[in-house]
Amino acid sequence: MGIKFDFKVLNFIEEKDYTCYVVQCSSHKFGRIIKAHYDGSVYIPNYQQQLAAMPDLDRTFLDIQLAIFILQRENGNFYITKEKPKV
C-alpha cells in the first residue's frame, strides 16, 4: 500500500497560459511545500530540487496524488476509474 498525502493550497496565481499552485503536501513521514503548474496537465518545475530527499517510490505516489488533487480543483469531479462511482 502506498503513502496517503494530504494537500492544502497555500496560494495560486492564474497566468496567461497556466495556473501556478503553491501546495503544502504532508503525510505521516513527509512535509513539504511544492510549486506546481497546471496548463491542461500538471507539471512540477525543478522536480529534482523540490523532491530530492524523497525515495523514488514515495515520489511517484506524491506525483500521482498531487496531479489528481490539482485536476479535481481545475475540472471539478475527476475520476481515475472508467466508471463514475454510484451516488
What does this protein look like?
- The structure is a single chain.
- The chain is of the alpha+beta class and 87 residues long.
- Helix content is 28%, strand content 33%.
Provide keyphrases for this structure.
2 helices; globular; 4-stranded antiparallel beta sheet; 87 residues; alpha+beta
Unreliable runs, pLDDT <50, ≥5 residues? none
Strand content: 25-35%
Q: How many β-strand stretches? A: 4
Continuous helix count: 2
The profile of the biggest β sheet is:
4 strands, antiparallel
CA-CA gap between termini: 26 Å
Mean pLDDT: 84
Run of helices and strands: EEEEHH
Q: How is the quaternary structure best described?
A: single chain
Class computed from helices, strands and strand pairing: alpha+beta
Radius of gyration: 13 Å
How would you write the strand order of the largest sheet? 1-2-3-4
Question: Could you provide a short overview of the structure?
Answer:
The protein has 87 residues and is of the alpha+beta class.
